[in-house]
Design brief:
This protein has helices at 2-13, 41-55, 69-74, 76-81, 97-107, 118-125, 154-157, 166-178, 201-209, 229-234, 254-260, 266-279, 298-311, 337-360, 421-428; strands spanning 29-34, 63-68, 87-89, 111-113, 136-140, 142-143, 162-163, 183-187, 195-196, 199-200, 216-220, 244-246, 284-286, 288-291, 317-320, 366-374, 380-384, 390-394, 403-411, 415-420. By secondary structure, it is α/β, with parallel strands linked by helices. The chain folds into three domains: 2-116, 3-Layer(aba) Sandwich (Rossmann fold); 120-360, pyruvate-formate lyase- activating enzyme; 366-428, Nucleic acid-binding proteins (OB fold (Dihydrolipoamide Acetyltransferase, E2P), Beta Barrel). A five-stranded mixed β-barrel has the order 16-17-18-20-19. Helix 5 links the parallel strand 3 and strand 4 (111-113). It starts with a helix and ends with a helix.
């Protein structure tokens, strides 16, 4: 979501004459887009601002803007704590960024814009073309979350669930497809809660499936409570919907899930897993795991470990519990950090093993790869498999933007290596 937001910010400020630069010393405006989910997010923001201050110690100060979820959470307190910051703007307000920059330039007055305003934000985005030049692009369909998991700040920083207009999403998908995008990832804090009148996420997928230029469809992030049968059944209809399901579960223990306020049970998750596997045995799962949540005992942890071993999750994320200010979980007594670290190491070793075995199983096989770009090496190209795995291979310039067959020679935990079949035929000849 933050990557998408950052790209749309670039699309926005171009309209008032600003452009992106890689050289810090050239900046007239320094904009830091933040995420509150990361550990010690607030402290990292102030550290980064300190770095900027140091760089501009003997130079004219740029306008310093902090955007995103940390800005939303801290708002005017951020302006008080760090006078070097000029503007704070929340994730639902960055469509107002141009006006705030112009207001600051005219008044030289510090500004706080952290109101929730998803409707006007989406209305604004509908008028600004998504100018990504990539083969693969994000497309926001909803924002916010109504689930209120006890560990999560999203409902407080992104606001309640709000779904974008079905027709406007399809319009943007068509625009992207006409401008070289081959893969679309539907994006939101809880995409499978999408609802616009009678339209659901399943309807969006099937409509985008009709666009001939779009070759692959993905979505993230989802919640087990909203994994309905109509969405599950799409995996048996759409050939473009990729067979990797990212479905965060957080824990393998019903007790811990209750403490987290997840409002689903392990048996609910397993039913979804079994239904999807019966529709398409090629489907693989990735997930999120919070290790060492307050109240997690050894039995709870082993239940999580067993779940990972049974489902064989790939490409998953795992973290030690880190309290977020203002959440219910922030008031709970944490468990011993040494215990948490030991458990995390055990889980990550298993997740890495699953990932390595999955990649190893593809060696000597021919797989479909969507080619995204050329690497720094003259003959090497980069693409991704159906399971989002990075693939480095010998290819050709005309492969970019196409799905091609690549024979995999070797692999490691994160990457597959091979050669396109066309190049292989040339090599054999």
């Amino acid at each position: 979501m933050n990557e998408y937001d950052s790209n749309r910010i670039f699309d926005t400020v171009k309209n008032i004459g600003f452009y992106k630069t890689e050289k810090l010393e050239e900046t007239n405006i320094y904009l830091l887009n933040t995420c509150h989910i990361r550990d010690k997010a607030k402290e990292k923001v102030y550290h980064e601002i300190g770095r900027v201050k140091k760089n501009f110690r003997s130079k004219k100060k740029p306008i310093v803007i902090v955007a995103g979820c940390v800005a939303q959470a801290e708002n005017e307190e951020m302006l008080k704590r760090e006078p070097y910051i000029d503007i704070v703007i929340g994730p639902q307000s960055y469509h107002k960024l141009n006006g705030k920059i112009e207001e600051y330039l005219s008044k030289q007055k510090k500004l706080d814009e952290t109101n929730f305003d998803a409707i006007s934000k989406f209305n604004y985005l509908d008028r600004i073309n998504n100018s990504t030049k990539k083969v693969s692009s994000f497309l926001t369909i909803q924002e916010g979350c109504d689930k209120f998991c006890n560990f999560c700040v999203v409902p407080f920083t992104r606001g309640p669930e709000y779904s974008r207009s079905f027709s406007k999403i399809i319009d943007e998908a068509k625009f992207l497809s006409e401008n070289g995008v081959c893969e679309i990832t539907l994006l939101g804090q809880n995409v499978n809660a999408y609802k616009d009148n009678n339209y659901k996420l399943s309807d969006l997928i099937l409509e985008i499936d009709k666009l001939p230029e779009i070759k692959r469809i993905r979505y993230t992030t989802s919640h087990p409570r909203d994994m309905t049968d109509d969405l599950i059944n799409v995996y048996g209809i759409s050939k473009k919907l990729m067979p990797l399901v990212h479905l965060p579960i957080q824990s393998g223990s019903d007790k811990v899930l209750k403490l987290m306020n997840r409002k689903h049970l392990i048996r609910d998750y397993m039913k979804i897993y079994e239904k999807l596997k019966s529709i398409n045995p090629k489907i693989e799962f990735s997930s999120d795991f919070i290790i060492g949540y307050p109240g997690e005992n050894e039995e709870d942890f082993e239940a999580t470990y067993d779940l990972i071993r049974n489902i064989k999750f790939i490409n998953s994320f795992s973290f030690i519990f880190s309290p977020r200010p203002g959440t219910t979980a922030s008031t709970l007594k944490p468990i011993d950090k040494k215990i948490s670290l030991k458990r995390l190491e055990k889980v990550q070793n298993l997740l890495f093993e699953n990932q390595f075995k999955m990649n190893k199983s593809l060696e000597k096989k021919e797989i479909d790869v969507l080619v995204e770009n050329k690497t720094n090496e003259s003959t090497k190209f980069f693409g991704r498999s159906e399971y989002m795995t990075s693939v480095i291979f010998d290819g050709n310039d005309q492969d970019v933007g196409n799905i091609i067959k690549v024979k995999i020679d070797k692999s490691n935990q994160n990457t597959l290596f091979g050669v396109s079949l066309n190049n292989l035929e040339k090599r054999v000849a």
